[in-house]
Amino acid sequence: MIWYMIGLILFLGLFSGFFFLWKLPLIPLTANSERVPPLSIIIPARNEELSLPALLKSIQQQSIEPLEVIVVDDESTDNTAHIAEEFGATVLSASSANLSQKGKSAACWMGAQKAKGDWLVFLDSDTRFVHRDALRSIADVYLKKNQNGLFSIQPFHETEKAYETISVVLNIMVMAGLNRFSLLKDKLPHRGAFGPFLLTTRLQYEKSGGHQVILDSHMDDIELARLYKSKNWPVSVYGGKGSIHFRMFPEGISQLVNGWTKSLLQGAEGTHPLVHLSIGMWITGVIMISILVILSVVYYSSLLAVLLSLCAYLLYCFQFRWLMNKVGRFPLWTMVFPFFFVIAFIGLYIWAFVQVHIIKKVKWRGRDIKT
C-alpha cells in the first residue's frame, strides 16, 4: 500500500511541474514600420557600474531611437553616474529630490516627472536588449494592444558563474507565482507584473498616480499592477527569452541572497492556492524521489527498485530542464541536481521569512530596508 502512495505522490509531483508553468508567451521578432510614439527610457540605478554599460550599449544599438534615456542615480558610491554620462544619458541625482522615501520606486517617480515621452519604459540596470529589433518588437506588441495598460517582461536569466545557478528555482517560482502560465491559463485570477521591464503610456501612468502612490514599496511591479487593475486597465506579462536578458547578481553570493530576500515573501503573496499547492507537490516529489534513489542504491533491496527509482528521477531531471529553459540559460549539469536547487530555494525562503518577520529589516546595496 505504501508503494502505491509513494507512486501517486511522485506522479502528482511530476504533473504539478507541468501545471504551474505550462506555457510562457514570448515577444515575437518583428520589424514593422508602424510609427512608435516618442518614448522615454527610465533606469533607476544604485551602484550599477558593472551592469549599466551593457544595457546602455544595447539601447544605442536599437533600430528605433528613444526620445531620451534617463538614469536616476540613487545615491551611488561608485561610477554609475559617470558611466551613464559617457553613454549620453541624462543623469538625475535622487539625493537632490525632495522625497520622503528612497529606493527604486522613488527613483522611478523622479525619472517619470522629468521624462518627455508619450511612452514610459522603466528598465532595471542589469537588463539588456539582445538584438537590434528587440525594442521595436516589444513596441509592436504594445501597439497591437492599443497602447493600453501596463506591459511587463521578465528577462531571460543568463548565468556565468556556478553560484548564480542557485537562482534557478527562484526564477521558475517568479514566473509561476503570477498565476498566468498554468494549465488553467486565464481561469485563475491574474496578479502582479515583472519589475525589470515595465512599459506604459504617460497618460495612464499619471492617471493611476504611478510610483508616487507606492513610494514606500520596494515591489513596484506588484503595486503598479494593483493600481492599473483598480482602473480596469489590463496588465500584460511576457517572458524575455530572445528579446530582453539579464545577469542577476554578478557581484557574488551575498548580493544574490540579499536580492532574493528583499522580494521573495512579498512576491509570493497573492499566488493562487492551486498554484501554491502544485508548487508544494512538485517540491515534495523532487525531495522524495531523490531520497528514494539514495536509499535504493545504498540498501540495494532489489535491482528493480533501483531501476524504477532511477527512471523516476530521470523524469524529474528532464522536467527540471524543461522548466529552467523557460526562464534562463543554465549549464546542462544543473538538471541532474534538482534536489540541491530545491533545498537552496527552501533555505532562501526561510531566511527571507526570518529577515522580514523577525529581524524586520533587509539589506540591499548597502541600504537597510525596513519591512
Polypeptide structure, described:
This protein is of the alpha/beta class and 371 residues long. It folds into two domains: 2-21 and 272-365, no CATH class; 39-155 and 194-233, Spore Coat Polysaccharide Biosynthesis Protein SpsA, Chain A (Alpha-Beta Complex). Helices cover 46% and strands 15% of the residues. The strands form three sheets. It has a seven-stranded mixed beta sheet, with helices on both faces. It is globular, with a radius of gyration of 22 Å.
Q: Give the domain tally.
A: 2
Low-confidence stretches: none
Instruction: Provide the spatial order of strands within the biggest beta sheet.
Output: 3-2-1-4-8-6-9
CATH class of the largest domain: Alpha Beta
Strand content: 15-25%
Q: Compute the number of strand runs.
A: 13
The secondary structure category is alpha/beta
Query: What is the CATH superfamily of the largest domain?
Result: Spore Coat Polysaccharide Biosynthesis Protein SpsA, Chain A
* Percentage of residues assigned to helices: 40-55%
Supply the number of helical segments. 13
Helix and strand run: HEHEHEHEEHEEHEHHEEHHHHEHEE
Which of globular, elongated, flat, extended, rod-shaped describes the shape?
globular
Tell me which oligomeric state these chains represent: single chain
- What radius of gyration results from the CA coordinates? 22 Å
What is the mean predicted local confidence, pLDDT?
Answer: 89
In CATH, the architecture of the largest domain is Alpha-Beta Complex
Find the CATH topology of the largest domain. Spore Coat Polysaccharide Biosynthesis Protein SpsA, Chain A
